[in-house]
């Protein structure tokens, strides 16, 4: 497959490119060339900014995976340029698109957030994050029809990624894991490597790509099990790293993703690999918010 990745040199994007190269795909990267520019020297690179994607004006690809589409304006520009020159457009979206954050078991067709009447499509704030993703999904569907997939994930765990990085670091260094959310709080996440593999599949429509719902207590026990004699859990830290108040967002229905080919590794494997990554001298990145 000829694959175009928008982004691809940090966090989840690195896993996508690694998985694509492992599977023998021909990869082209489009990004600014400023983040980890030495990665993937064997890959063709197109350098440019999302605000000026003219480097994408020539070329054809079987699929584009958009890892860096935050501003509505930027996604619109890439969609207009690529409309007739890509087979599929897979957009990395978010579970933050849902308006109902209380009801458990929602599938992909729950109510979505509206676009504020005074919002600008060339500005990004965390308050607009979910609404921006909704608007981007909509314009891509209008442009590519059923050739569009909107992959909605929440926490993404694993090397290169910030989510649960404080847990991995704590376990790797013999310190206490922390959670301001109580042990009964539901949570869902997906391993970055499982998500990367999924993004390479032939997908269509919106898809909740999350793991099964656990409680924070269950998840903490699974992570602590990968090291001998872990320090006691701290359930009352000074800083809340998880922001898990919206319980409905962490009890989503993932059956559509499982039917489409999502394969999920065990929590213990994700934890063990994250701890090993830290012990090998890596540092968990800071969360984006």
TrEMBL record:
It comes from the Bacteria. SUPFAM superfamilies: NAD(P)-binding Rossmann-fold domains. This is SDR family oxidoreductase.
